[in-house]
Each structure stands twice: as C-alpha cells, then as structure tokens.
Write a structure and sequence with these properties.
The complex is a heterodimer of chains A (245) and B (356). With 245 residues, chain A is an all-alpha fold. In chain A, 78% of the residues lie in helices and 0% in strands. Chain A contains ten helices and no strands. Chain A starts with a helix and ends in a 5-residue tail after the last helix. Chain B is of the alpha/beta class. Chain B has two domains: 239 residues, P-loop containing nucleotide triphosphate hydrolases (Rossmann fold); 69 residues, 2-Layer Sandwich (Alpha-Beta Plaits). In chain B, the strands form three sheets. In chain B, strands 5-6-7-3-8-9 form a six-stranded mixed beta sheet, sandwiched between helices. A four-stranded antiparallel beta sheet of chain B has the order 11-12-10-13. Chain B has a three-stranded antiparallel beta sheet with strand order 2-1-4, sandwiched between helices. Chain B is elongated. Classes of the chains: A mainly alpha (245), B alpha/beta (356). Chains A and B meet through helix 1, helix 3 and helix 4 of A and helix 3, strand 5 and helix 4 of B. Chain A: One of its GO terms (biological process) is response to antibiotic. Chain A: Keywords: Antibiotic resistance, Membrane, Transmembrane, Transmembrane helix.
C-alpha cells in the first residue's frame, strides 16, 4: 500500500504540465480578483479583500488540483482497464483511495503556499507566524476532502461524462461556498444552504484564523464528515466497480 | 458427423431435445472425476452450475468446472464461447446469475484479497507515467509474498525494459509486463487471458518458457487462448468451451483422439461407390477428388477423417478395393477443435444420434 502511495506521488510530480498549471493558476486568479482592491473591510466582515481572497483562492486552487485532477485521471484509468487490473491484486479499497488522496495532496500543497507568498509579497498581507502555519495546514488538510470527492466522481462517471459532472460540482461548490465572493453579499437563503457545504466550511477554517481566532469546531466537523462520506463512497465504488468501462 | 463416445470427452449439445440426457452424461463423468480427486487436494477453482447472461445472450450456461493444484489448464474456444466471461466470474469481476464460484474454498474477492491470485487481463491497462520497474515492484509489494524484483523481471524477459516508461512500450512488450505483474506476487493461482496476443513468434516462445516455469513450481495456471498450438504445447489439460458450456475436457491428445483426429489419405484406381466409402466405420468426414494431373487415368484421391484409423483402414480393405499411397497422419488440435465445435452446431437429428 505504501508502494502505491509513493508511486502515485512520484507520478504526480512527474506530470510537469499538470503540476505547473495547478500551481500557477490560483495565485494568478488571486491577483486578478484582489490585486487592485483597497484595504477597507468587506461589508459585513472584518477582513479586507486581500486577506479574504488569500484564503479562498488558496482553497479554490487546492480544490481545482485535487478534484478535477483526480476525477479525470481516475475515469481515464478505469477506461484503460488499469483499475480493473489493480482490483485483481490484494490491494484493499482504502489503499487505493489513500494513494489517490496522497497524490492530490502533493499537487495542492505548493499551490496553497504560492498563493500565500504572493499575498504577502504583492498585497502586503501580514499575519502572525502561527496564523500562517494554521492557514496553510488547515487548507492543505481540508483539500483531502475534495480529493476524496474527486475519487468518488471518477468512479461514478465514465469517460466523456466525467468532465461536465466534475465541472458542475466544482463550480457549484466554489460559488455557493463563497470562494469567489464573500457570502455576506449573497441572499440569505443561499447563505443558509452554503453553511452546510464543504467548501464554505473549508474557507471558514482560514478566515477564522485570519480574524484572530481558532477554526470553528462546526466547520472542522463538517469537513471531516464529508471526508469520511466521500472516502467511504470512493472505496466502496472502487471495490464494487464491475463495469468494463 | 458423430464424434462422441463415452470417456474423457463430453459433448453437450445446446438446443437439442436430448440435451438433458447429454447433460446427465456430463454430470456423471464429472462426479467420477471428483471421486478420483477426493483423496487428493481440494480444488483451487470450482464452478458449480454457474450461469451468466447479458440480456438475452447466455454467456455462461450451467458451467461445471474444477481445477486442481499444479494443473496447467488451457481454456480454449472460439470468440464468443464464453472464455472471458468465465474468467471474469472466476475473478469476481462479475457475479453469476445462478450457481457458485469458489477459489480456494472461499469467494473470489476474499481469495484475491488474501493474495492468492495473480491475474493478467486482456482488457487490463497499465498505470501510466511510471517506469516498468516501479510498476512491477508495486505488483510485488501488493502481495504478501513475492519474488525478488530482478528475478521477476528476468523471468518475464523484461530486464532490458526495466527503466523504460510504461507509456512507451509496444504491444508485445506490454504483454510481457502484464505477465510480470501477474506472476510478481508468487500467487498460488495464475490466470491469464489470451496472454500472447500481440507477441511475435520468438517472444511467444520465451513467454511459454516462463509459463512452464510457473507451472513447474507447483502453481495452478489457467489461461484462455485461441492459439491452439499454445494449448497443445503447454497445457496438461485442455477445456474446450462452446456457447458457455464445457464441450470437451481432457488432455490435448485425448481431445484430438476423441474428435476424430486422424486423417487417412489414399488414391483409388478402380471406380468406387461413394456411399460404400461413406459407410466406413468411425468416419467423421470424407472427400473424394478427381486427380487432375493424371487425367484420363481415373485415379481419384480420397481424404478421410476418422476416429479410429486402424478400424477404418481395415474395413477399407474389406470393401475389396486396393488403395495406393496410403497415408495415416494425426491432426493438429486445431482440426480437432473445429470438428468438436462444428459437431455441436449440427442439426438436432445428428445431435440426437450424438447424445445417444
């Protein structure tokens, strides 16, 4: 099982093109959205644009890398029959899911760090050392939830259908979770739904730290719950998958 | 065309009214086999009246099959005979509609999770973006036991490919890597689905050598193939599948013998009634051709396929004719195989006769 995890990580690092775009894309988006913003707090919040979007763009970038990368690659591997071959080994379902999450996490970590570096260098974001570390760690660990979601989607959808489905989930979650614009400017009913989405909880980990506090237990619980749900579904789908694809 | 007598070869004829009787024959024969093995080890693979349909297509029909430790078994059959479906059921990739499949006395899934099975699928893709060595190491590490890495590479004949990226392999090289994956875990049962597809003759020879080595180490090897020479040369047991049923089960030699696998050729000078020739005993086919090169001489060449060449030739002299250039030769498994499958496709009238 550790061999598979190692191999998946090596493979992710070897895929230079995917690595490059996954890492470059979030800081570029950050600069586009928050680049020209002033230091005034966002209405209804204590954070300004530079701070808020540092966290959400790091989250968004990590989510892009793990969710889209995983779902598409897995659908492709199923189509080629590699997963079928792997199923004939003694590898347990959880080993497969763990390896895929590990590979995704390898790609998401540098993209998270780069957004933070750009925020500090260009937008003069200044935080305490513990805040930097907590945000980086929280955003990285939180990305595991979306990596597991990516594995599950890769198993639910086949070849042609996987992109539209993962895109829909990805944009829907990103928008409703407040990764693109602060939730406070959206209608109340959207906020009520969003509160229970993994993306909202994900962004809330970082913003809570930026505001000077610890992440809310509720957000951590929501993310952990979704992680268990997605990873469980992914492992179950891996073992159950009998289609030739 | 009748081609069945009692013995190791059982002919089951789908669609015939006497089918039940034929099935009963099969069952009796199988029971005898089981009894013979009762003193020995438990079966590695067991199919108990397994059926599987895809919509209206019956891929596997009440298949009854047992494989014992150390056997090298070829699963032979034309396309659509149910070979791949049988292997899918065996490996737990599909579930039977009826009947039970057990590996090592447990479910296929559990046997695989215990690391007892190494398999190579026809449709099995490879992981991309990794080196051959890394991939083989993965297959080895996923199983509880496993050979040293260099030994696996050498046995599969891919030592020189070890540092190559998997994406950059040719079809035949990919097959050898798949074989390495199937054997890396030192598993008790090795299942290979058309393993030599896409290989050239020389790499096929190397491959067979590697397969024999596995068998010599006491592993049970089951491979599906439509290369008849492969079944003939390697397997010590050949199972012919046709329309999802076991059509014949025995050694290659037995199947050849039972399928009327002797060819008798001779020339005749004197005119001979064709019906008299077709009345010869143990005959399975007859062709009479005018010998074009000796025009006017009236010499004709007769080609016969028979199940018992001795009896046929004896009866031929009994007809009072004098055959020239008499030749008796064995048929390859290919001809035997065609004889078996076409025999089961013939009309119900012939089928009744066969079942009797």
């Amino acid at each position: 099982m550790t061999t598979l995890i190692k191999l998946e990580i090596i493979r992710a690092l070897r895929n230079k093109k995917f690595m490059f775009f996954s890492v470059i894309y979030p800081p570029v988006l950050y600069l586009l959205i928050a680049g020209g913003a002033d230091r005034k707090p966002i209405p209804g919040m204590r954070l300004d644009m530079g701070l808020y979007f540092m966290v959400t763009m790091a989250a968004f970038g990590a989510m892009t890398a793990v969710l889209l990368g995983n779902s598409e690659r897995i659908a492709k591997e199923r189509e080629k029959g590699w997963v079928r071959q792997l199923r004939l080994t003694a590898l347990p379902g959880r080993g497969y899911v763990a390896a895929k999450i590990a590979a995704a996490a390898t790609v998401s970590l540098p993209s998270i760090l780069l957004v933070m570096i750009v925020a500090a260098a260009v937008k003069d974001v200044r935080l305490e050392a513990w805040q930097w570390i907590a945000i980086a760690a929280g955003t990285w660990l939180g990305s595991f939830t979306f990596a597991a979601l990516g594995v599950a989607i890769g198993y639910l959808a086949t070849g042609d259908a996987v992109r539209p489905i993962s895109m829909l989930v990805y944009f829907g979650l990103a928008f409703l979770g407040g990764l693109w614009m602060p939730m406070t400017i959206l209608p109340q009913w959207v906020q009520n739904i969003a509160e229970w989405l993994p993306t909202h909880a994900y962004a809330a980990l970082g913003t809570a730290v930026e505001a000077g506090g610890a992440p809310h237990a509720k957000d951590i619980a929501i993310l952990a719950g979704y992680l268990l749900l997605f990873a469980g579904a992914a492992a179950w789908l891996y073992r159950k998958d009998t289609r030739k694809a | 065309m009748t081609s069945v007598t009692a013995g190791c070869v059982q002919l089951t004829l789908p669609g015939s009214p006497r089918n039940r009787e034929a099935e009963r024959m099969t069952t009796t024969a199988t029971t005898t086999t089981t009894a013979a093995h009762r003193a020995g080890p438990a079966p590695v693979v067991s199919f108990q009246r397994v059926s599987k349909s895809y919509g209206a297509v019956r891929a596997v029909a009440e298949l009854h099959l047992e494989l014992y430790p150390g056997e090298t078994v070829a699963l032979l059959g034309p396309n659509g005979a149910g070979k791949s479906s049988t292997l899918d059921l065996l490996l737990g990739l599909r579930h039977p509609d009826a009947g039970a499949v057990t590996l090592f006395g447990t479910t296929p899934q559990r046997a695989i999770a215990q690391g007892k099975v190494g398999a190579m699928l026809q449709s099995g893709g490879l992981m991309e973006g990794v080196k051959v060595r890394e991939l083989v190491k993965l297959a080895r590490d996923l199983h509880p036991r496993g050979y040293p890495l260099d030994q696996i590479l050498a046995t599969a004949g891919i030592t020189d490919l070890a540092e190559r990226m998997v994406d950059k392999l040719s079809g035949g090289q990919e097959q050898r890597v798949r074989f390495a994956l199937a054997t890396a875990g030192a598993n008790d049962l090795i299942v290979l689905d058309e393993p030599t597809t896409g290989m050239d003759v020389s790499s096929r020879q190397t491959f067979w050598g590697a397969m024999r080595k596995q068998a010599q180490q006491g592993r049970t090897v089951l491979f599906a193939t439509h290369y008849l020479e492969e079944a003939d040369e390697i397997a010590d047991r050949v199972i012919v599948l046709h329309r999802g049923r076991v059509l014949a089960d025995g050694t290659a030699a037995e199947i050849k013998a039972r399928a009327g696998a002797r060819r008798v050729t001779f020339d005749l000078d004197e005119p001979m009634d064709r019906t008299a020739l077709s009345g010869l005993p143990f005959l399975t086919s007859l062709t009479v051709s005018d010998n074009g090169s000796a025009a006017g001489s009236g010499r004709r060449t007769v080609r016969i396929q028979t199940q018992d060449a001795d009896a046929t030739v004896h009866a031929l002299y009994g007809l009072g004719c004098y055959p020239h250039n008499l030749e008796v030769s064995g048929l390859g498994l290919e001809a035997a195989f065609i004889a078996l499958t076409t025999a089961s496709d013939t009309t119900p009238a012939t089928a009744q006769e066969t079942a009797r």
